[in-house]
Design a protein that fits this description.
The structure is a homodimer. Chain A has a single domain (about 1-79), classed as Mth169, Chain: A, CATH 3.30.1280. The first copy, chain A, has two helices and three strands. Chain A has helices spanning about 15-25, 50-65, and strands at about 1-10, 35-45, 70-79. Strand 2 (about 35-45) of chain A pairs antiparallel with strand 2 of chain B. Chains A, B: Its main location: cytoplasm. Chains A, B: It comes from Rubrimonas cliftonensis.
Chain lengths: ~80, ~80
């Protein structure tokens, strides 16, 4: 199965990378940009065939390694 | 409007960051991981109110700044 994990900063956490992108877009003439937040996308190929088990496994991966849950949230999609 | 851009490496392009995650997951005891690819997620708040115009604007941003189209592909979702 394939899992798609998105890791994003929690609201209120400063995102200098997003701010840099917003500024660069403004400099390129994209004037309608009101805000940018950058996150991570992680695609995982799993041997597991059961969707529920795969989701539980990927959530454990997020808690242990993929996301810093103090400042980040994650979402898991199983396909 | 909000736009959600995902930027991923094209198939065949070496992804050392993904390989490092796969190795770290293996070291943590997640034995069913067959492959990991890491990409970027960029969320943009736009002043533009029309979905088609917003999409065209975000695609121009991807071509000019957000993605390196030599090695990366991007997908745009407008919400």
């Amino acid at each position: 199965m394939k899992a798609r994990v998105t890791v994003t900063l929690k609201p209120g956490v400063l995102d200098p990378q997003g701010a840099a992108i917003a500024q660069a877009l403004g400099g390129l003439g994209f004037t309608g940009v009101q805000g940018v937040r950058q996150g991570k996308l992680i695609e995982i190929d799993l041997a597991e065939g059961d969707a529920a088990t795969a989701r539980a496994e990927v959530e454990a991966m997020c808690e242990k390694l993929l996301a810093n849950t103090v400042i980040e949230t994650y979402a898991v999609e199983i396909a």
